[in-house]
Automatic annotation (TrEMBL):
This is NAD(P)H-dependent FMN reductase. The lineage of its organism: Bacteria, Pseudomonadati, Bacteroidota, Bacteroidia, Marinilabiliales. GO terms for molecular function: FMN binding; oxidoreductase activity. It holds the Pfam family FMN_red. InterPro entries: Flavoprotein-like_sf (IPR029039), FMN_Rdtase-like_dom (IPR005025), NAD(P)H-dep_reductase (IPR050712). GO terms for cellular component: cytosol. Residues 7-146 form the NADPH-dependent FMN reductase-like domain. Gene3D superfamilies: 3.40.50.360.
Length: 179
């Protein structure tokens, strides 16, 4: 196990300023600050709609920034809500800009869906990350159903069972990063 902090890119699938997903990523960053340095990506709403004709050697600057931040991170944590039984369009759009690259290939990724329901979003996110050849560890994804009743406005989990599951997810993710 290494003693240096790992650089993690944290991506919220929500563009809402008071998002429980964003608050949760901030809480994870604070809780694990002794082991990881978190780069909280806040430009998901600035990435243009995916257009294969613009996915050239000179893609839009916001896309270049997003890709570089993934490429230079040791791992990625995605925390997202579910909109209409799927991923938010802004998150899916951002991920689509990575399809022509290999930046997610073998990249350690942890997946969290915090939503009212969330089954379809977590299923979709797992499939997408598998397609991109990302490395999601065993117990590396977490579905938090009824998130508003289990996560405080500061992002701290208020439900003991959910907190235990998040700790397991983070332990497995950090173990993968240390390999």
């Amino acid at each position: 196990m290494t003693s240096s902090k790992k650089k993690i890119l944290a991506i919220s699938g929500s563009t809402k300023q008071q998002s429980v997903n964003l608050a949760m990523l901030k809480a994870i960053a604070a809780t694990y600050s002794g082991r990881i340095t978190v780069d909280l990506y806040d430009g998901i709403d600035k990435i243009p709609h995916f257009n294969p004709d613009k996915d050239t050697d000179t893609p839009p600057e916001s896309v270049v920034d997003f890709r570089n931040r993934i490429a230079t991170s040791d791992g990625v944590i995605i925390c997202t809500p579910e909109y209409v039984f799927s991923l938010p369009g802004s998150l899916k759009n951002a991920i689509e800009w990575t399809v022509s690259t290999t930046i997610f290939s073998k990249k350690p990724v942890a997946l969290i869906v915090a939503a009212a329901s969330g089954e379809k979003a977590i299923e979709s996110l797992r499939l997408i990350m598998s397609t991109l050849d990302a490395t999601v560890p065993a117990n590396g994804s977490l579905l938090i159903k009824g998130a508003k009743g289990k996560i405080g406005p500061n992002g701290v989990i208020t439900d003991a069972e959910t907190e235990a599951k998040l700790n397991t997810l983070m332990d497995n993710f950090l173990r993968l990063l240390d390999k």
